[in-house]
Structures are given as structure tokens and as C-alpha cells.
Design brief:
By secondary structure, the protein is α+β, with helices and mostly antiparallel strands. Helix content is about 35%, strand content about 10%.
Length: about 90
Amino acid sequence: LQDCVTVQSGPRDCVRKVPGTWTAVHTAEQAAATAAGATYVDPLPWFCFEERCPAVVGSTPVYWDGIHLTATYARSLAPKLAAVFSPT
């Protein structure tokens, strides 16, 4: 947000593509989970849609420094995490 928000910018200026490094980490984590007999939960849909990752969802900033989640966005993920850990 520090770099993409300007007087002339809009929300679309604060959207980026899924980083290539994320894909490599995702593949390694998924393989490790499979090898351990665990279930892998893909968090990408919590942050991106159609390969586009916004810096703001609704009116909530996602990252406070480009990498780390804001406390507000992290709290908004609680229902998603609860559903993963306690499926109905």
C-alpha cells in the first residue's frame, strides 16, 4: 500500500499477480503434506482470485508491509480457518 496508493491511483493499481516464489513454496508444502499423510489446505483463494491478489479486500488492507498480514485481515480469516479445522 505504501507504494501503490497515490492521489491518482485506484484499487486496481494495488493488485498484483501471484508471485512465482509462492508457486514454488506451494508445490513444496503440498508435497510435504502428502508425504506426511496430512491434508494440505490451499490458502491462495483467501488472498487471490483468478491469479490477481489485491492489497485491499473490501475496505480491509491485506498486508501492512507487502508481506505480513494486517491484524484486521488476519481476523477476517478466522471463519475460513475454523471451517478447515472443524468441517461440518
